[in-house]
Each structure stands twice: as C-alpha cells, then as structure tokens.
Amino acid sequence: MTITSSEQVVLLDDDGRPIGVADKATVHGATTPRHLAFSCYGFDEGGFAGGQLLVTRRARDKRTFPGVVTNTCCGHPAPGEAPEDAVRRRLDDELGLAATDLRLVLPDFGYRASAGGIEENELCPVFVAVLTGEPRPRPDEVESCEWWTWERFLEAAADPGSEVSPWARLQAPLLDAHRRTAM
C-alpha cells in the first residue's frame, strides 16, 4: 500500500493523550514521535483459548520492518476512528478477513523498536479476534500468511534467532499470561 499524505496518525504525549496528528508518510523515521497504533491476533474458530493463530510476514517493500514475521495485523487508527473499527478496517484491507469476538486484551501495551534506520514508538493496544473468511493477502502489505499453533508462535517469539517482529516478541508472553488466566 502506498502511503499518501492524506493518511494521518494520532500523536500522543507520554501519558497516552492525543496531542495532534501527523502524516503517516512522514512520521516514521530515525526518531519517531509517540503515536497510536494497534496489534491484532486473529484465530480460527477455536478462538484465543485454543485455536490456531494466523501469522503474517510483512511485505518486503514496507518501509517499517519489512519481511518480518508477526501477528495477524497491525495498523494505526485514523483521527477520530475507534481502535476496534481500525482493526476491522485493516483486517479487511490487508487480508480480506472479517473479525468476530473482537476483544481488547492488552489496552496499555507500548513499545519502541528500531530497524533499518526506522524507529517505532507506539502506544499499541492489543486485540484478539476470531477470523471469518479465507485470507487473501494484499501483496503490498503481506508477503505470506500461515496458521500456527499458539505454542509454535510462543517458541518463535522466544527464539532470538527467529524473524519475529520486536513488538510480537514483547506481546507474546503478555498474551500467553492473559490466555492462561482466561482458560
């Protein structure tokens, strides 16, 4: 997906309060201002408690973290857009999927990570969902996708030699703890 100047991200202060907007095309650089994002972990009909996770590999021509293996979908809510609506929009846009049982499980997750001269600095609430439909990845967003067991994902996230994204590495143990308490 080519980022146009009309796409905006919500800038945040250190306490997570909105302080403005910026063009998505210009916000990610060597030093990136804190902004609002989201991550979604989409599962088959077995759901978060026991289903398989749709793992994606980001397109290799993406500006931020190209080619990494990661959770199902990530993105940025537009100004005034509810994060849940942004999750549904990006799942449809990137993968041609719909979500049921969409739940916010890590509302206060935030991180910083750098690669290839680009920094991420995000307050990134984490959602889980049950996915409906067959994945149809957009090649400019998602190189490939594959259903993994939760255990395989946890092992890959814990392996320092794997290609798992930095945010998914941090989110995996937090999600696993939440998953265990929910079972």
3D architecture notes:
It is a single chain. With 183 residues, this protein is of the alpha+beta class. 26% of the residues lie in helices and 36% in strands. Strand 9 (110-115) and strand 10 form a beta hairpin. Helix 4 (150-158) packs across helix 5. The radius of gyration is 15 Å and the shape is globular.
Please outline the helices and strands:
Elements: E1 8-12, E2 18-23, H1 24-27, E3 35-36, E4 38-43, H2 47-50, E5 53-58, E6 69-70, E7 73-75, H3 83-95, E8 98-106, E9 110-115, E10 118-123, E11 126-132, E12 142-148, H4 150-158, H5 166-182
Parallel strand pairs: 3-10, 4-11
Antiparallel strand pairs: 1-2, 4-7, 5-6, 5-12, 8-11, 9-10
Q: What structural class do the secondary elements suggest?
A: alpha+beta
Strand content: 35-45%
The helicity comes to 25-40%
User: In CATH's first tier, which class applies?
Assistant: Alpha Beta
CATH architectural group: Alpha-Beta Complex
Average pLDDT: 92
CATH superfamily: Nucleoside Triphosphate Pyrophosphohydrolase
Task: State the end-to-end CA separation.
Answer: 38 Å
Tally of discrete structural domains: 1
Basic shape: globular
Poorly predicted regions: 1-5
Keyphrases for this structure?
183 residues; alpha+beta; Nucleoside Triphosphate Pyrophosphohydrolase; 12 strands; three-stranded mixed beta sheet; four-stranded mixed beta sheet; 5 helices
